[in-house]
Design a protein that fits this description.
6 helices, five-stranded mixed β-sheet, two-stranded antiparallel ribbon, 11% strand, alpha+beta, disordered N terminus, 24% helix
Length: 285
């Protein structure tokens, strides 16, 4: 066990030095549709009137700082084209049990030369409400060419791409991928730039430093189904590598999205939270 601990410390130190963590500049969130509460702090965190997270929630970085974080919904590079309501800081918040399970999976992946990268973790209900409002506005299709080129926006509810409740709001669900180490930087998205299909060849998709999973993250297409038979070869092997590693740590995949995993048993299986994503939402110990 002392040898294993030493190995882990060495891997963690090396990974921390090599990993490129996406940091969203303040200018990137300036276009958010969220109306700032009167009591919000100057730093953009939760205000005095905002709900706080229960003590069971933690920042993933406090549990495992080596896991790469690219919190897409804090940026304009998502299927709506604007930062999402409630994402006041680009950080991953999870229940403690889920975060510890993520750490266990990360230890195993680091030994094999990979790192986990999270796109989304806990998601407040206000963010889900933002998704729903966007889905009902059929005139707003600015990101269609990348995220849902073969799906009519009018069927997003019917086909299950958008729903009024999300397991992410319970705090034990993550959207994530794998990155081969050493990680190379992913360039930032520039609003208004030409869009390319999320299911095209990797070289033609928006750049992502992750392994090639056959589609990009949040691709509204049946090709994103984890075991879609059209996904073969290296792309299928990458999906199975992620799936098998997370299952060993206690996560269960959502079959329609290769990136979507829920830790089981969930700490809050029936509760949907709405505290904003900010360090100040968390209980200090």
């Amino acid at each position: 066990m002392p040898r294993l601990a030493a190995v882990w410390r060495g891997l963690a130190a090396a990974a921390a030095a090599l990993l490129t963590v996406t940091v969203v500049p303040s200018s990137a969130v300036a276009g958010t549709a969220e109306a700032p509460p009167r009591s919000r702090s100057a730093a953009g965190g939760a205000g005095a009137d905002d709900p706080k997270a229960p003590k069971e929630f933690v920042a993933l970085r406090d549990v495992d700082p080596t896991i790469i974080q690219e919190i897409r919904y804090a940026t304009p590079h998502d299927f709506m084209g604007v930062p999402v309501t409630g994402y006041r800081e680009p950080m991953c918040i999870l229940t403690r049990d889920a975060a510890r399970a993520m750490h266990r999976a990360q230890v195993a992946f680091l030994r094999r030369g990979y790192s986990l990268k999270v796109y989304d973790c806990y998601r407040p209900q206000r963010a889900v409400d933002h998704f729903v409002a966007w889905a009902k506005d059929l005139s707003d299709q600015r990101m269609k060419a990348e995220f849902y080129p073969r799906v009519d926006k009018s069927v997003l509810f019917r086909d299950g791409y958008i729903a009024e409740k999300s397991g992410h709001s319970r705090g034990s669900t993550v959207d994530l991928t794998l990155v081969r180490l050493p990680a190379v930087p992913t360039r930032p998205y520039v609003p208004g730039e030409p869009l390319t299909s999320c299911f095209g060849p990797k070289a033609s998709r928006f750049p992502d430093n992750s392994l090639d999973m056959g589609t990009g993250f949040d691709c509204f297409d049946t090709l994103a189904h984890t075991l879609d038979p059209r996904i073969k070869g290296r792309q299928r092997a990458h999906r199975l590598l992620l799936k098998e590693g997370l299952e060993r740590a206690g996560f269960v995949n959502y079959a329609d999205e290769w990136w979507h995993y829920t830790f089981s048993p969930e700490t809050f299986p029936d509760t949907y939270f709405d505290f904003p994503i900010a360090r100040s939402s968390l209980v200090r110990h």
